[in-house]
Amino acid sequence: MFASLAGRTVIVTGASKGIGRGIAKRFAEVGCNVVVVARSHDAAKMVAEDIAVAGGRAVGVTADISTEAGVHAMAEAAMLHFGAIDILCANAGIFTSAKIADMSAADFDETMGINLRGTFLSVKACLPTLSLSGRGRIVLTSSITGPVTGMSGWSHYGASKAGQLGFLRSAALELAPAGITINAVLPGNIVTEGLLALGPDYLASMAASIPVKRLGSVADIANAALFFATEEASFVTGQTLIVDGGQVLPESLAGME
Q1: If you placed Cys at 175, which of 61, 99, 115, 180 could pair as Cys (CB 3.0 to 4.6 Å)?
Q2: Is 157 among the catalytic positions?
């Protein structure tokens, strides 16, 4: 059994829905104090209230993590309510589709600003307090798209997610002396509001291309993030964990026959 994480304080960015909400609720289930961060005040508050109803401890915080003011407000809120930051789950991200020929510079900048710049800013804002924890943990939500695979229309998204891993590896070296580990979960196709919006045909085709013959759940990603936050994972840093049901393994669909 893993040692208890009860009483630890975790910040989860992009926690109002999808994978972020799943991560926030999973950490609450094991007794963590959860700082639910989202751009929408009502959405952040709703997730925090859901956690409280289930017996957990949480606070909703409104912050734009692509800005320095936003991440500092996030870190200050964690200290105000719980007096510590032990774990940062840098999950916030967007994935809008646009072909290169049609993509504007503003589209590219927005995706990089939230997905990559937001990761950097979130980590930097939490560093002083994570260093005081003595067992600081940072978990990034990256993706198989960019670091491992590609998808037409998602070049900006893929670049941002691959960039996160470049950041991660150098950050691991810088943060290790302070006892802070930093690792990343790379989800495959996970059932979230964003994926459902792509339609039933897309969902069916994706499930057919996954060796385990199903799409992933937010719980699959939340459990991976939870592992990286444990004491038992203290000797793991600068690493990535693909959680995709084996999607990236076959050379083609024929390879699964």
Answers
A1: 180
A2: yes
Tell me the one-letter amino acid at 189: N
Q: How many CB atoms lie within 10 A of CB 162?
A: 18
Question: 158: which residues sit within 8 A by CB, 6+ positions away?
Answer: 143, 145, 146, 150, 151
Amino acid at 21: R
Q: Tens place of pLDDT for every residue, the chain, 257 residues?
A: 578 899 999 999 999 999 999 999 999 999 999 999 999 999 999 999 999 999 999 999 999 999 999 999 999 999 999 999 999 999 999 988 899 999 999 999 999 999 999 999 999 999 999 999 989 999 999 999 999 999 899 999 999 999 999 999 999 999 999 999 999 999 999 998 877 777 888 888 888 889 999 999 999 999 999 999 999 999 999 999 999 999 999 877 766 67
The set of residues, in sequence order, having a beta carbon less than 8 Å from that of 24 and lying 6+ positions away, is 10, 12, 15, 34, 36, 47, 51, 58
Domains of the chain (ranges, CATH numbers): 9-242 (3.40.50.720)
Amino acid at 94: I
User: Apex CA 176: angle with CA 146 and CA 182, to 5°?
Assistant: 30
Give the separation between CA 139 and CA 229, rounded to whole angstroms.
Answer: 7
Determine contact, residues 34/77, Cβ cutoff 8 Å: no
Cα 73 from Cα 226, distance rounded (Å)? 24
Catalytic residue among 157, 168, 221, 228: 157
**Which residues sit opposite 141 in a β-bridge?**
185
